[in-house]
Design brief:
Helix content: 40-55%
CATH superfamily of the largest domain: Glycogen Phosphorylase B
Number of helices: 16
Distance between the termini: 13 Å
Radius of gyration: 21 Å
Strand content: 15-25%
Structural class: alpha/beta
CATH architecture of the largest domain: 3-Layer(aba) Sandwich
Order of helices and strands: EHEHEHHEHEHEHEHHEHEHEHEHEEHHH
Number of strands: 13
Shape: elongated
CATH topology of the largest domain: Rossmann fold
Length: about 400
């Protein structure tokens, strides 16, 4: 029997962001007859998704000092038991871990002899590229954002080491263009590979909307406008709540659901109170079953200032939910205004509210946009397509390097 090719999937954390979710969602589609996968992460206080990876049969290694070499950190007992992560590490704090984590990564590579390191997000990318260059192992990297959006230290480290990558995938054409601006003639081999979602799983997890509506005390006659996000500044959730307030003043038959948690939660609570929406808004906090909450929404609203290609948006579209989203990052590469969703300008909550009201008043338009959105995701953003493209890249990068 032929040996499997050993692949190390390296990521900054196993917290609740889109890149981390992509990793977990990819696991059922991996060719594990051909590849032997291990997951490694750097930030020990963000491990909410580690149990799901372990349950799927992939080894998980925390590279931070003071953690076992072949185990997840002790806080990650179960997804449901992990508390909300409301204070993520600043880039400088994560950077402070780099020397020790790099040493542990090098020791791991020396011992396990992975044929390829595939890193996601800049901290892991810097580590993976540095160790790969030193130890002569090919490195692939996935970029989820624009270089201009990163902290200056992160941006500088990323720019200095990106040319060492053997392959870079960007989740959107805009992210790819940003890489070319940053690296110029030193840009490595680069391709656009959009994000994807496990369509059938998303739809299965979103079932049972009627029971959840009752749990959330939503009037049966109400429409639901909602979102699912990590509550970070980039999501401009104060704009989201301001738009909700404008909609609420025009319609009494709408309930608003915000699913998630993060550093912006206090500001969101204050905005809800300022708009007088305490009885109209449901703040669920972090939910491991977030897709179930997507199932109750008649309309998904995204007000972000910047994005790569948001996974929650793709999940809502997969459910056939009408979406209203700011035209930022890769959003406009997925949502075509008037065909499979509606686009608005960032920082314009009054415009978002007007579009939401237009859709709430027109069930036929909501249905048409939602059906087109589901076809878009089925056709172009099923995670099966993304995994197949990644593994084709792995085959090219590891040719002659099988363990």
């Amino acid at each position: 029997m032929a040996h499997k090719t050993k692949i190390l999937l390296l990521i900054k954390s196993l917290g609740l962001g889109g890149a981390e979710r992509l990793l977990v969602d990819s696991i059922p589609y991996l060719d594990r007859d051909r590849y032997d996968y291990t997951v490694a992460y750097c930030v020990p206080w963000k491990a909410a998704l580690a149990p799901a990876i372990l349950a799927a049969g992939l080894p998980v290694i925390c590279l931070a000092p003071g953690t076992p070499r072949h185990a997840i950190s002790s806080q990650a007992v179960s997804i449901q038991a992990v508390p909300s992560q409301v204070t993520p590490a600043r880039p400088a704090a994560a950077a402070a871990l780099l020397p020790a984590v790099a040493a542990r990564l090098a020791a791991l590579q020396r011992r396990e002899r992975y044929a390829l390191i595939h890193a996601d997000l800049p901290v892991a990318g810097v580590l993976g590229r540095a160790v790969g260059r030193w130890m002569r192992v090919p490195v692939a990297y996935t970029e989820h954002n624009l270089q201009e959006r990163y902290h200056p230290l992160t941006r500088a480290l990323n720019r200095a080491t990106l040319p060492w990558a053997d392959q870079v995938w960007a989740v959107s054409a805009e992210a790819a263009a940003s890489l070319r601006r940053a690296c110029g003639p030193r840009t490595p081999r680069l391709a656009v590979l959009p994000n994807g979602v496990p369509v059938e799983q998303v739809r299965a997890e979103a079932a049972g909307a009627a029971a959840l509506r009752a749990e959330l005390r939503i009037d049966p006659a109400h429409r639901v406008v909602g979102t699912l996000a990590v509550f970070r500044a980039q999501k401009r959730l104060a704009d989201w709540v301001e738009a909700a307030g404008a909609v609420a003043r025009r319609r009494a038959d709408v309930t608003f659901v915000l699913v998630g948690d993060g550093p912006e939660m206090p500001a969101v609570r204050a905005a809800v109170a300022a708009q007088g929406l305490q009885e109209r808004v449901r703040l669920t906090g972090f939910r491991a079953d977030g897709r179930r909450y997507l199932g109750v929404m008649d309309l998904f609203l995204l007000t972000s200032e910047f994005e790569g290609m948001p996974v929650a948006l793709l999940e809502a579209m997969a459910l056939g939910t009408a979406v209203v989203a700011t035209a930022v990052g890769g959003v406009g590469e997925v949502v075509e205004d008037g065909r499979n969703g509606r686009l608005t300008a960032p920082g314009a909550p009054a415009q978002a509210a007007a579009v939401v009201c237009d859709l709430l008043a027109d069930a036929a338009q909501r249905r048409r946009l939602g059906e087109a959105a589901a076809v878009t995701v089925d056709t172009h953003h099923h995670i099966r397509r993304r995994v197949a493209a990644l593994e084709a890249g792995y085959a090219w990068l590891t040719k002659g390097r099988q363990a």
